[in-house]
Structure prediction request, 133 residues.
Amino acid sequence: MTMDGTMLGVLRDFESTVITFWRAVPGLSDHAVARVYETAFQAYGAEQRGRRAFPHKLSGDDLVLFEQIRAAADYRLGRGPCPASCSAGVPTQELATIVKCLGELGKSVRSHAVNGGRQPYLQYVSQFLPPAK
Prediction:
């Protein structure tokens, strides 16, 4: 699958969701974001394969962020309303695109981990998204 404009829009919706959450919860770490992306990747990947996802063990802020990522994914799949962090009026995506995007975002978090610190991914991505209103 190539990285086209549609996929970039999905990536941006997920990243916008994460950065909006981080701005409200500044203690969020890249490690927590990686767990959330991985949990969502596993859940939608299981659905893509026609299987049931394993129960996750997220709690607290991680669980809240996961639910927000799930709301963004479900919107992109045509299953729910548009969350505030997403682009309204976008075309419905296939499940394979959602899974691919979540996998790419997980890789992105891991690649920024080499920079050290608790939030190199969050700091990097936030510079490309508009400040909170």
About this structure: The chain has one domain: 5-126. DSSP finds five helices and no strands in the chain.
